[in-house]
Amino acid sequence: MEGGYLVGALILLGLASATDPSPLQDFCVAINDAKNGVFVNGKLCKDPKLATPEDFFFSGLNIPGNTSNQVGSTVTPAVVPGLNTLGISLVRIDYAPYHGLNPPHTHPRASEILVVVEGTLYAGFVTSNPDNRLFAKVLYPGDVFVFPVGMIHFQLNVGSGNAVAFAALSSQDPGVITIANAVFGSDPGINPDAVAKAFQLDKNMVRQLQSRFWSGNNCRV
Ligand SMILES: *[C@@H]1O[C@H](CO)[C@@H](O)[C@H](O)[C@H]1NC(C)=O
């Protein structure tokens, strides 16, 4: 009997300390009809017997990304089929001289570790409410900075030449929410009253911002 209680207590303890598995998509609406269902948390897997070294290989992260866009930066992912379900990914980030910016954004599903290989970056992240502390540093080649999962973060090229960084992320599909794009460039637009009040802006200013083009800096491969 006592043993039964002990097992019960251990099960409860286990439940109390467990967390939900991290989702790999923005949402997953439950349906009963399997015919109209989709696969979640990964892609269909190749028969392991048919796997080749090419499945674990990617070439081209030595090639600079094109930074001729609104923000002056571009993110190029390493697209590797064998990464499926392994919970990691890798990108190259290029920054144009004089304030090429990887704008404030969050990855809802991944922490990030970034290493600078060329140039000078001002990089940082902001903690959650109520403190909203900024952790920021100027980074030089060889310097590494960590952005914890979910925190708003950014990198700005503060040098006069190109800057290049590589970043590893703790999900095969980290997700990206670029703050300005999400707030001012949503489709359809958020009611300007809501945005004006939240950002202490004039409603006309909000309308003006909403009418602008909000481009991303993610290289489509
Ligand atoms: C870079 O992108 C811009 C804008 O899309 C384009 O006009 C330009 O030709 C591209 N440069 C190269 C080298 O591909």
Automatic annotation (TrEMBL):
Which positions are annotated as binding Mn(2+)? Answer: 105, 107, 112, 153
Keyword field contains ATP-binding: no
Q: Would I find Manganese among this entry's keywords?
A: yes
- Gene3D superfamilies attached here? Jelly Rolls
Where, in this chain's numbering, is oxalate bound?
102, 107, 112
- Disulfide partners: 28-45
Q: Which terms in the Gene Ontology molecular function aspect does this entry carry?
A: manganese ion binding
Query: Could you give one GO CC term from the UniProt record?
Result: apoplast
Q: Main localisation, per the record? A: secreted
Q: Family membership, please give it.
A: Belongs to the germin family.
The record's function comment reads: May play a role in plant defense. Probably has no oxalate oxidase activity even if the active site is conserved.
By what name is this protein known? Germin-like protein
What species is given as this protein's source?
Hibiscus syriacus (Rose of Sharon)
Kindly list the organism's lineage: Eukaryota, Viridiplantae, Streptophyta, Embryophyta, Tracheophyta
